[in-house]
Amino acid sequence: MQKPRNSGSGSASRRRRSAREPGSTADAVLFMTAHLLSEFAGGGIGRMLVQAMAKDLTWRGMRAIEAFGGRRWESPARVLPVDYLLAVGFKTVRPHHHYPRLRMELKTVLTLREVAWWRSSGCSGP
User: Fold this and answer.
1) Does residue 78 fall inside a structural domain?
2) What is the 3-state secondary structure of 90-119?
3) Distance from C-alpha of 65 to C-alpha of 117, rounded to nearest angstrom
4) Which tens digits make up the pLDDT trace of 64-79?
5) What is the DSSP string of 58-94?
6) CA–CA dist 44, 41 (Å, integer)
7) Hey, what's the torsion of the CAs at 36, 51, 33, 56, to 10 degrees?
8) Number of domains in the chain
């Protein structure tokens, strides 16, 4: 005779939930990596690129950007440094001693002036 399967509140449910937790949430885009040549570092171009990405994703209806940051960052690396992500507007949502998950909410990225300009210009988006 077989045991009845657990239907929701037991260990199977916890396994499904924990399997989802390491990745990004359903309302966010996962920002994987970026690279800026050393001759352009320190001039604010990295910040402008993240801001442009955020504006584009806002226009496309996304609600947030999530990223995994590296605490012990050395160039080249597969993840961005935590300090950089925090400096450009991300906040830590899941602490980790090596690779915390950070999130940037997009609800206030576009200003009303920018939205009005894009709509009046007849463009489909930035």
Assistant:
1) yes
2) CEEEECCCCCCEEEEECCCCCCHHHHHHHH
3) 24
4) 999 999 988 777 788 8
5) HHTT--EEEEEEESS--SS-SSEEHHHHHHTT-EEEE
6) 7
7) -120
8) 1
